[in-house]
Write a structure and sequence with these properties.
This protein is an alpha/beta fold. The chain has 16 helices and eleven strands.
């Protein structure tokens, strides 16, 4: 069994999907235990791809499975889990059917193996197809509405390409040409997915870092720093810290995760940019002085990253949203107290949930110390428009002809003068 080529990858993928669906873990959290025994990088990459595509198209894969069984398999039945991988391998990764059978059926034994073989063979004979865009889970339809969910789904049909943020935005045209990519904004270059970043021009020189186009917007809304003091709350792994430092801010980068803060330090070293990393809990930490600008990219459900992390479509519920909204408001209130009069606060979340975005911004606008500072269309990448309130809401279905972007909510405020 262990000698079947590609079997380790399928075993790893099965463990990844199980960790998401049964234990509510993220794919990132599950990778260590699920893929720790897989030595070949290709097998690890294949396991990740199979798991991601199974989760991205889960509703549609289950519909196909149910169409070929007399009795509906339980959601947590192992034959259903294996069939999801088999169909994802065939329909999404274009693995030949004979190879799918050879590498996936050993995950089962006895009757379940015969059942999976029969269902897959039936669907193969029917030459079934997936729709143009994945069907959203019921939870997404309930929370976002059918129209918005359909728009988001259109942006999930393909895994996203790779976005790079440039250290020197004035060199956008040069780096676009060097990297053979496209640019959707100053300081941004997009290259095809699957690109090995370490092999790209400019990596060793720290000329750029990986950051989704939507994630590049919040730091840009603070403008040029000119040596003034900025605080990047919840800063790791560091993309926004790097952007602020590159734009002339003297940055304090706060985060409580040792591992993620080390990634920030590594990125600072590679790019040659300067910042002061601090490991602390923002709810208990106290600064020595106030700041001219604060960027709060708050902890959130991260449902806006569903293009890259389709697991969020299946594991985020009301309890997580309630816990995180309480944390977010606490951080907004802390940030407001640490801001100099006349200073600027940018609040951002990579979430599609209104409780974490629009509703939080409305609460922040009612604080005595903060005043809304509307974002304008001129400050955004071409094709994006602010909301009537001067907030920004992006989702994966936007800019679809250019490859899309993650879902973000962004609001900007200024600190009222004490007088």
């Amino acid at each position: 069994m262990a000698q079947t080529p590609g079997l380790y990858a399928r075993q790893g993928a099965l463990k990844l999907v199980d960790a998401v669906m049964r234990r509510g873990e993220t794919l990132e959290q599950a990778e260590g235990p699920a893929l720790g025994n897989i030595r070949k990088p290709h097998d690890k990459a294949l396991a990740r791809a199979l798991a991601a595509e199974s989760l991205r198209w889960l509703v549609d894969l289950d519909a196909l499975i149910d169409s070929a069984t007399k009795n509906v398999l339980p959601d947590d039945a192992k034959p259903r889990a294996v069939l999801r991988l088999m169909l994802a391998g065939w329909l999404r990764l274009h693995t030949p059917p004979h190879a799918v059978i050879a590498t996936c059926l050993p995950l089962l034994s006895g009757g379940p193996r015969r059942l999976a073989h029969g269902v897959f063979s039936t669907l193969h004979k029917r030459d079934v197809k997936l729709p143009d865009a994945p069907t959203m889970p019921e939870r997404a339809l309930e929370r976002w509405g059918e129209e918005r969910a359909a728009e988001i789904a259109a942006g999930l049909a393909q895994p996203p390409e790779l976005d790079l943020a440039l250290r020197t935005p004035d060199e956008t045209a040069q780096w676009q040409a060097k990297l053979g990519g496209v640019s959707l904004a100053a300081g941004h270059v997009r290259v095809p997915r699957g690109t090995a970043t370490q092999n790209l021009d400019g990596f060793d020189d720290g000329a750029w870092w990986v950051q989704d186009l939507a994630a590049q917007i919040p730091a840009s809304l603070l403008g040029a720093g000119e040596g003034k003091q900025a605080l990047d709350l919840c800063a790791a792994p560091g993309g926004k810290t790097l952007a602020l430092a590159a734009n002339g801010w003297k940055v304090t980068a706060l985060d409580m995760s040792k591992r993620r803060l080390q990634l920030l330090k590594d990125n600072l070293k590679r790019t040659g940019l300067k910042a002061a990393p601090i490991r602390a809990d923002a709810l208990t930490w106290e600064p020595k002085h106030q700041y001219d600008a604060i960027l709060l990219d708050a902890p959130c459900t991260a449902t806006g990253t569903c293009r890259r992390h389709p697991d969020v479509l299946h594991r985020v519920g009301g309890r997580q949203i309630e816990e995180l909204t309480s944390l977010q408001m606490g951080l907004i209130e802390k940030a407001a107290g640490w801001l100099k009069p006349g200073g600027t606060l940018v609040y951002a979340v990579c979430s599609l949930e209104p409780e974490e975005g629009e509703e939080q911004a409305a609460r922040a606008a009612k604080l005595d110390s903060l005043e809304p500072m509307p974002i304008t269309a001129e400050e955004l990448p071409a094709g994006l428009q602010p909301m009537a309130e001067g907030w920004v809401r992006t989702h994966p279905g936007m800019l679809s002809e250019q490859g899309g972007l993650d879902g973000f909510f962004i609001a900007r405020f200024t600190k009222k003068d004490a007088g």
